[in-house]
Amino acid sequence: MTIRGVAPPTPDVCLKVASSRTRKRLHLLTGACLGLFLLTHFSNHALGLVSVEAMEKMRWGFNLIWRSWPGTILLYGSLLVHFLLALESLYRRQTLRMPVREALKIVFGLSFPFLIVGHVVSTRVEWMLTGSGDGYYEVLPILWSSTSTALRQSLALVLAWSHGCLGAWFWMRGRSWYPRYFLLFYSFAVLVPLLALLGFAVAARSLEGGMPSEAWFMVNHARPETLAQIRLAIVAGLLAMIGGTLILRAIPVRGKIRITYPDRAISVARGFSVLEASRAAGIPHISICGGRGRCSTCRVRVTEGLDRLPPPNEGERATLARIRAPDDVRLSCQLRPNHNLSIAPILGADNIGLKAQPSEQEAAGRERRIAVLFCDLRDFTLLAQKQLPFDTVFLLNRYFETIGEAVEGSGGVIDKFIGDGALAIFGLSHNIEEACAQALAATVRIARGVDLLNRNFMSELDKPLRVAMGMHAGPAIIGQIGYGKASSLTAVGDTINAASRLEGFAKEYDAQLAVSADVVRYAGLTVDDRESYKISIRGRTGTLETLIIQNAAEIEIMMEAGKRQKETPT
Length: 570
Hints:
Number of helices: 19
CATH topology of the largest domain: 3 helical TM bundles of succinate and fumarate reductases
Mean pLDDT: 78
Largest sheet: 8 strands, mixed
C-alpha cells in the first residue's frame, strides 16, 4: 500500500495493489491478530485476582511471544495495516450515514490509539530505547495513583475490546452456526474485559503506596522529555492521518450520475455505491452485513443501464453465485456505477405488517361464527438449510406478504404468523356465508401468489414452494388474548383446532387444500359431485366431512359454476 505524506491511499491505487476481497481478508486477519494480543494481555490482567506474582509469571510468557522480533513485527505490522485499511475504508465511504453499530465500531477504532499511546510509549517504546521494562510491580501503582489515569486505561481496555467484538460480530452473524453459539460468544465477550478490569483493580490496590522511588526512575527510565516528544509525534501523526482522510473526503468529486428508484430519482457523485447513494438520500435500504458484500440483503435488480456497469468483483461474484442470482441482479454495496441506471431493490425495508383490525370494543369477548384458514409451507426447513440466513428471512417475508395481501384483499384478517405458517380469520364483520366465500377466494389468491414467487425465485430454489391449507367454519370466541404488549385479537375454540387438523390432512394427501364441506355449503357451492372424506378430529366427537382440493385453482372453477347456477332461471 503506497502512502504519500500523511494522506491515505486513493481507491484507484488500492485497487491496483489488492482486490476488494483481498483487502477484506487482510483487514480480518490483522484484526484477528490484534484480538489475540488483547486476549492474552487481558488474561494477564485477570490474574491480578490471584496475585501480582501470578501476573508477573504470565508476563514472562507474554513478553516471550509479543516482544520477540517475529511477535513485534506481527503485532505492530497488524496494527499499522489495520489502521490504514480503516482509513482507506473511511475515505472510500461516500456518506457518513450508517447504522449505529457501524458508527460505534469506527469511533471506537479511531479513538483507541489516542487512549493507549501514553501506555505504549512508557512500556514498549521505552523498553526498546533502554532495554529495561517495567513489570506489574512498577506499572500498577503508577496507573492507580491517579483517578484520571486509571479511568483512561480502563476506558481504553473497554473500547479496544468493544471494537474487536463488533468486528467479530459483523463477520460471524451471517454464518449458519452463529445462532447456536451466540450465548457462548456473548458470555465470553462480557467476561474477558470484566475479569481484566477486576484483576487490574485488585492487583493495583494490593500495591497501594508502593510507588517506585524517583532515584529508581532516573536510573531505569529514559529522559521524560524524550518520551514526551515521542508521544507528541505519534499523536500528531495519528491526527494528521485522520485529518488528511477527512479533508480528502471533503474535496468535491466532478461528475454526477442519476440513479432511478421505482418511486424517485437521485443524483450522486461518481464513486458512490448504490447502497451509499440510498443512505445519503435517506432511502431505506437493508444491508444486514453492513455493506461488506457478505450477505445478499442489499441486492437490487438493474432495470436500465446494465450493459454499462463495471463487472462484479470477486466477493460480489461469490455471493451472487451462492444465491444463483440472474445477470441483472447486483449487490448495491459493491456496485459503483459510472453511468445513469435504474434499479429496483429486491428486499424492501418495510417488512410485512398487519393493517388495521377491528377494535377491541367491537370484537373482544364475543362468540361469532367465522371461517378459519390455516396455511403452511411444506418442507421449508430443508429449503432454509440451503439458503443464506438473510435470504431465508427475505423469502419468508415475501411469502408472508403474499399471504397477508391475499387474506386482507379477500376481506379477512391475519390472526398470527407461526413459524412458516399463518392463521387467518374471516367473518369478524360479515355473516358466515360471506366469510366462507371470502376464505375460499383467499385460497385462490394464495395459490396464485405462491406460483408467482416460484417464478420470481426459480433460479434460487431447488424445489418450488408448496403450500398446504386447511379451512373450517363454525363458532369461535373472539377476544383480546395475551399479556401486556404480547396480547392480540385472536380466536379460540373447536373451529380453530379443526382447521389446524385439516391443514395437516392436506399434507397427508399431498394437496393444496383440505376444506370442510360446511365451508363449501355456507359459500353456496355444491359438493355432491366431489369425493369427500370422513375424518376424526382429536378431542371432537364424530367425524368431519372434508373435501380434498389438489389445486386451489379448482375453487375458482367451483365458484364460477355456483355463480352461473344462481343466475340460471329455474
